[in-house]
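Q: Protein A?
A:
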Amino acid sequence: MKKTALALSSCVLLVACESTPTIKDGKPGTWPAGLEQEEVMERMIETATPGLEHAKLADMVGDWDVAVRYRWRAHNTWQTGTGTSKIKSVLDGRYVVEEINLDTGDVPYHGFQIYGFDNIEKRYFQIWMDSLSTWPTATWGDWDAKDDKGTLVLSGRIKDIISPEGRPFRQTRRWDGKDKLITQIYDTIGGTEKLVLEMVKTRRKSQTQ
């Protein structure tokens, strides 16, 4: 990565460097104590460079067939649907973007989500948007250390007209072989976590090896 590209996204820091090259108080938004511009730029390059965590997310890239089952509340009957998913890597491997189109027999459902790994926070994240809302949902987490099959566990708060202030929810995404992904979403209903959605993605046969 060229330093000139980073300078474009960090002009505020560069201006600060010219006026206060060594700020000692350490307050948020101030130049790091004892660091010169060159050292800060090196750290910026390091945190902006995709690594093994990003490569792990890139394993999801491809075209998928989707089978989904869902229920609005824990006591409701499961409903089913089918669809497609297209997952691609963007911004030179820094993020993975997924577009989902589902047919559930009611209104068409379209979803869009971004996966990434934050090199500063050292956490994975996901941002979700869909055709049934006008607000995003964000979750954060990591791979389950106890699961050798590889399960990404992400938690956050979901809001809707029932809970406009938000309520806890959790999602897991795990591999079943290299060509099947299983996503499960758990909502918090009446203070108890319940499975409300399960989505199984199967990689298109033309892409399997």
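Q: Protein B?
A:
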Amino acid sequence: MSPALVLEAYREGIFPWPVRQGLVPWASPDPRAIFPLETRSPWPRTVRRALKSGFRVSFDEAFEEVMRACGERRDEGTWITPDILITYAELHRMGWAHSVEVWKGTELAGGLYGMALGGLFAGESMFHHLAGASKVAFAACAGRLRERGFRLFDVQVLTSHLRLLGCVEVPREEYRRRVREALAVQARFA
């Protein structure tokens, strides 16, 4: 798994979804889940409450720490294998992969990471150690994407949590069209 291969996959609307060390299937779900950046609906009450909880947000300060926290063992297992961690850490050093960190004092309370290519941000994973921290990370990420001219916030697969945040599904062909349009835009996450 090389950074060049990962970048090419994202440009085609495909992302890696490892099931165990050494086995990395590539995914392009239909439908695809996105967060619509073009609409500005108010955040749900739970998000607004979390935004008032005294968290501090940073960007790209603790990328590998965020990835490791996202990869902590869960009941369903983790897809963040050592190969994925190494590859995405390299993509971060190259300026493609980014993180949003949410802090309570000096403790990393939550965060997310993803890939930025042109006007596309592909969210990969998020976590929280304190209630509301992942919601703050998501809202901060969406805000940054909007202010920096991003066109597409890919969240891959719709979950009940992402639906609560305002994410929706679009057919794969519409998603691929949006990817092409977003890649033509010059936007910078960092």
